[in-house]
């Protein structure tokens, strides 16, 4: 027992001209049935309520049948076909032959078009034969031809709907194939970029680490003094930066290859490097890859800024899952050791980049002084299928258009 395809049972892809023609045809049949009841049967006044009621019941049964067949509810659909046939016999019994013909033919056509073929035939044959038998002066051949015509028309409607549905299925498959091809191409391009970054940047940083380590060892072997200690401190700091850059490069490579570690694990790892406290609250949400990457980069940038502008201060990192979104906060207590050179370093584009990341995802970012320290707060939705269509809508908005402040020196 096979139903027609879901696309065939829907109105998807039906031309507007066909819809207009169907409406005109149904309106003409209804007018013909009412006028026949008025002229042939002699129904007047309140008596016209009988054919009107029959039409309304028939229209309701047809509308219900279209819905129940889309939902593939066989028992209810068969019941509605039976209702159409019963209304046809009731109309025939009171002399409304045209009304009966309209109901019988509609029921037979819909049964063949929208029900499993075997059940549709079992319902359509009695309805078609009812109409054929009541045709005046019809012999056996005429009755057979009439029945065959009705059944052929119903089968033609079924084949047309199935052909339309098959066309839309092919379109959906082609669209899915194109999307898969685009995803595959994107993954291949990401893998190529990851290889380039690894071959150039990662190797360069690894070489720098080796040279810096060698320089540190040679300086330690040299004569003691204030100058040696200062140079050793700078070389050690540069070595730490190179190691951090190498770790960040590997994280970026993992992101390009789709091999990201969980966000909480990543945040705890980078926070531990700066002796920052990490707190995670709420029930974990599945984040879109671009959201996960934005959270990582904002946390990384904010911790770097805290290390530069609040040396020696306490830093607290909070990741909170709230409803369907994510909130990330990085607070520092202010500098415990003043360092003019570090506070003046940097291009000032770090917070701008964080803001752009947030807005591309339909989120917000607040950054500004809080007491003696500084606060960076990111809010983004966990899923951004709709938000990403608004890419860059607010980027470059003037200060005051959103919650965005830049502290001096950042």
Profile the largest sheet: 5 strands, mixed
- Which stretches are poorly predicted, pLDDT < 50 over at least 5 residues? 339-347, 385-410
Q: Sketch the topology as an H/E string, one letter per element.
A: HHHHHHHHHEHEEHHEE
**Can you tell me the overall shape?**
elongated
- List how many beta strands DSSP finds: 5
Brief overview:
The protein is built from 12 helices and 5 strands. The protein is α+β, with helices and mostly antiparallel strands and 410 residues long.
Descriptive terms for the model:
five-stranded mixed β-sheet; alpha+beta; 410 residues; disordered C terminus; single chain; 12 helices; elongated
Give a structural overview:
Mean pLDDT is 75; it is low at 339-347 and 385-410. The radius of gyration is 38 Å and the shape is elongated. It has a five-stranded mixed β-sheet with strand order 1-2-3-5-4. It contains twelve helices and five strands. α10 (289-309) links the parallel β1 (277-281) and β2 (315-322). α3 (49-70) runs parallel beside α5, α4 packs antiparallel against α5 and α4 (74-93) runs parallel beside α6. It has 410 residues and is α+β, with helices and mostly antiparallel strands.
């Amino acid at each position: 027992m096979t139903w027609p395809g879901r696309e065939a049972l829907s109105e998807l892809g039906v031309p507007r001209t066909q819809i207009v023609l169907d409406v005109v045809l149904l309106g003409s049949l209804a007018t013909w049935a009412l006028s026949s009841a008025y002229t042939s049967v002699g129904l007047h006044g309140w008596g016209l309520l009988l054919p009107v009621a029959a039409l309304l019941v028939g229209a309701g049964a047809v509308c219900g049948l279209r819905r129940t067949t889309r939902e593939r509810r066989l028992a209810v659909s068969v019941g509605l076909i039976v209702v159409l046939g019963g209304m046809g016999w009731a109309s025939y019994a009171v002399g409304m032959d045209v009304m009966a013909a309209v109901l019988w033919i509609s029921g037979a056509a819909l049964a063949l078009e929208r029900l499993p073929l075997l059940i549709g035939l079992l319902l359509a044959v009695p309805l078609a034969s009812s109409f054929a038998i009541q045709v005046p002066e019809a012999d056996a051949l005429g009755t057979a031809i009439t029945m065959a015509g009705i059944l052929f028309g119903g089968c033609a409607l079924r084949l047309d709907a199935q052909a339309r549905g098959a066309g839309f299925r092919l379109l959906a498959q082609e669209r899915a194939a194109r999307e898969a091809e685009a995803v595959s191409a994107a993954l291949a391009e990401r893998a190529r970029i990851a290889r380039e970054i690894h071959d150039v940047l990662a190797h360069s940083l690894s070489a720098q680490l080796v040279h810096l380590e060698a320089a540190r060892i040679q300086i330690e072997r040299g004569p003691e003094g204030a100058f040696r200690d200062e140079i050793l401190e700078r070389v050690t700091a540069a070595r730490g930066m190179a190691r951090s850059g190498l770790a960040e490069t590997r994280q970026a490579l993992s992101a390009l290859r789709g091999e990201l570690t969980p966000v909480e694990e990543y945040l705890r790892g980078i926070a531990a490097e700066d002796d920052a406290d990490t707190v995670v609250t709420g029930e974990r949400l599945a984040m879109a890859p671009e959201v996960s990457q934005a959270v990582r980069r904002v946390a990384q940038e904010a911790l770097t800024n805290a290390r530069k502008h609040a040396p020696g201060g306490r830093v607290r990192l909070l990741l909170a899952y709230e409803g369907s979104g994510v909130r990330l906060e990085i607070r520092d207590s202010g500098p415990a050791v003043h360092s003019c050179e570090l506070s003046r370093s940097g291009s000032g584009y770090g917070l701008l980049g964080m803001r752009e990341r947030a807005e591309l995802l339909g989120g917000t970012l607040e950054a500004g002084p809080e007491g003696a320290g500084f606060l960076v707060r990111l809010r983004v939705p966990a899923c951004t299928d709709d938000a990403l269509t608004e890419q860059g809508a607010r980027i470059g908005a003037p200060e005051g258009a959103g919650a965005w402040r830049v502290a001096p020196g950042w």
